[in-house]
């Protein structure tokens, strides 16, 4: 009896320590670290809903995307334009390379209760829409348990939509049995009613540990940025500090910002005729040589499961009452012509996105006519100096609109 009592007491003390530690780290994320997390694009930030507490401010707008969100010294990137958090308007960034529509549907539902401003921007990448869609390994690497837990607990997302998302998750987690089992456990508890008390207990204890680990990882990589995963730390990003004076977004000279983007792009694209940033072009040629010519003749964005994943994202947004602005980013027309990627297929992709936006009644920032605009992109696919200048203004207009 004494041993059982001692074991129970030890368990209670351990759980109490975990709870107390979790409360401490959560307080750090929602307190002293909140502002620097607004524009942070570390992988660890994506693990925890608590890292997005800035969304509780009505002057903040959620911007979802993937690799283009990372700051690459573009003076027109929203982090620099809006004072790195010291502004009367901020864009809270969510996404890293490989984060696609299904992951973002889960993330949106996970964060919706924190969003004082019921609007969000979703930047689409044409490269998601190759025939296979998101690869299982990529999806698994961007599947965050704490986000998924908050998604499943969100009662405004219908069971029907949750079933569709869970079905797709299980398809994509076929090579990750541990995560697939976690999804199946949530399905039993929240959807099928096939409740095993042991499953519920394991899930609860597991989430306690997982939540602590997620918040700790965010705190650790904010305190020691060089420890960020996937080499996402750069000295330049670390050097960016909040503006000394408050930026008033309504006073920004957007025409001057576009001109600034034009000049910066021109100074950094000097060694090729594709309007690709010099450093990126050198890496591209080293990686692919000149074998890239006509290498994409048989490629297409016309048909892809990513379209249905995007529709699921928009269905989640509709059920949550969140107004969405999709952003259709073009490819680099010069480079894609060089690789032989069919122009008609590209046009069909852009039209597919227009159709989906119209069918779902959401706004679309359509930049598909800028494939050949110098400095709109910084490489073959990512928003560049002028691209961000245009989008910054359109995001702010979307935020202001009734």
UniProtKB/TrEMBL annotation:
<dbReference type="InterPro" id="IPR006998">
    <property type="entry name" value="DltD"/>
</dbReference>
<dbReference type="Pfam" id="PF04914">
    <property type="entry name" value="DltD"/>
</dbReference>
<dbReference type="InterPro" id="IPR023896">
    <property type="entry name" value="LTA_DltD"/>
</dbReference>
<dbReference type="InterPro" id="IPR036514">
    <property type="entry name" value="SGNH_hydro_sf"/>
</dbReference>
<protein>
    <submittedName>
        <fullName>D-alanine transfer protein</fullName>
    </submittedName>
</protein>
